[in-house]
Amino acid sequence: MKQVPRATQFIGDISKSYLTHSNLGGEGPDAGSEVMHISGISFFNNESTDLIVTADKSYKANDALENGVSHDFGLINVLSNSTSKFWFEFVDADTRERRNYSKIYLTVYDFDQSYDGTFEEAVASSATAYWLTNKTELLTNVSSENISWRSSEHGTSDDNPKDKQNMTPQQLNRSLTLLFENTGKLDITLGVRVSEGDKVPAYGRTFLFDFRPLLENGTEVRPSGWPVQAPGESGALFHMERAELSRNNLGGSGPDTDGLRGIVFRKAGFFSGYNLNIMASVATGTYEPYKVENNGWWNGWGAISGRCGSELDLRLSFVDSYDGFPLTVPDALLSLMGIGMDDDGGCAASVSLSDFENYSVVDTGLTVSQTKATKTFSKTSARTKDSSQVDVLFKSVKETRATIKWSAGNSGGSEILFKFGNA
Predict the structure, then answer these.
(1) Contact assessment for residue 211 and residue 107, using Cβ atoms and an 8 Å cutoff
(2) Is 309 left (phi over 0), alpha (psi -120 to 50) or beta?
(3) Using H for helix, E for strand and C for coil, what is the string for 362-387?
């Protein structure tokens, strides 16, 4: 997503927020985007900020109904004997653009464990400092790559904090405050671990968190030589071959006739907790199809059928599968096939693109020409459909335009094939 600069320290209050969507890691209970969305976590200068929490693919909950907000705290439930990385991203409530801050404090509460030896653990690699009490119950381990903390004392839900203004000494001693600087997205790994040789219990434990500097008045620790890493992006993971063709009506030409235009490849990827749709539509002008029944799919590739002697201004865009909101992915690799001529030398298909990072020609028969910032990929020999001809890398992309041209010919038309993949 586009990053909106922020110079101030983040000031948030979970007690005034509310849970609008809960499907962290696809564990439910809601359907749709695989995120936990907490609305109204901050309201500053007449701007409302939301929190989007995502998890890596290893995340498992024992009880997904535990995820959300309770009293003054956010909650994440983790299944016993599992560990997952979580990303916390602060976004504009209206535009979903990321908000960056000079300082963000994350406090994790209630590090305790069971009598059977099941313990709670946190690992951080992108924080710049941390705080514990002088009588902390947490065990700390600092390595060259990260720092971890684990519980050491038994506890139950009865001793969980419920009021941030009235914390007991024990609750403070089971808390950890982390500082993240100059960012709008932070990550932390949380796990419920089982001691070696112990039986894995059939339950989970719940981590409590908020974004206030609870222990800031204590002793600040900045481990010497500890390399602070930028928070990792969950990245865009494309799998077009598993997508669903939910609409096939490019330019209103059919074969679907529901009145909605364009081609939609549903759940063609995953990004930052969102199932991602790829949409193909006519940007400007008209579209002259050759065989509309050939539009949509071809062996896991998207297919656009065009008539000889026509031109198409095609828009390719990414949107959230859940609500259709536009998504900006950090990078996307667009592969193309079908560039070239008929066997008789007619109906030559070419593709013109701009605003990309770089490209790699796979088919040595391709010709690359340039007009201003636009590169055109063409071929003066017969086209093939057995492998990618050119791979084009886009950075920070929400949508792109491609001009497809078919020269005059006797065959009637041909198909340009495309696929988005991982860079």
Answers:
(1) yes
(2) left
(3) CCCCEEEEEECCEEEEEECCECCCCC
The DSSP secondary structure of 219-231, one letter per residue, reads EEE--TT--PPPP
Angle in degrees, CA 383, 389, 393, rounded to 5: 145
Query: Using an 8 Å Cβ cutoff, are 147 and 140 in contact?
Result: yes
In this predicted structure, what is the pLDDT of residue 324? 78
How far is residue 282's CA from residue 303's CA, in Å, rounded to a whole number?
14
Among 33, 64, 59, 27, residue whose Cα is nearest residue 320: 33
Paired tokens of 19: 């849970």
What's the one-letter identity of residue 167?
A: M
Asked if the bond preceding 161 is cis, omega within 30° of 0, the reply is no
Judge contact between 139 and 119, C-beta under 8 A: no
Q: For residue range 60-101, list pLDDT tens digits in order.
A: 999 999 999 998 899 999 999 999 999 999 988 887 778 889
Token readout for 138 is 């947490």
CB 393 within 8 A of CB 356: yes
Long-range contacts for 167-171 (Cβ within 8 Å, ≥24 apart)?
A: 167/214, 169/135, 171/109, 171/110
The angle formed by the CA atoms of residues 393, 394 and 397, to the nearest 5 degrees, is 160
With residue 318 as reference, give the H or E element that holds it: strand 311-320
Number of H helices and E strands in the chain, helices first, is 1, 32
CB 194 within 8 A of CB 118: yes
In Å, the largest CA–CA distance within the chain is: 84
> What span, in angstroms and rounded, lies between the C-alpha atoms of 76 and 39?
16
pTM of the model: 0.64
Residue-wise pLDDT tens digits, 372-415: 999 999 999 998 877 889 999 999 999 999 999 999 999 999 99
Here the tokens at position 364 are: 């040595």
- Alpha carbon dihedral 253, 255, 261, 263, in 10-degree steps, equals -120
Distance CA 364, CA 172 (A): 65
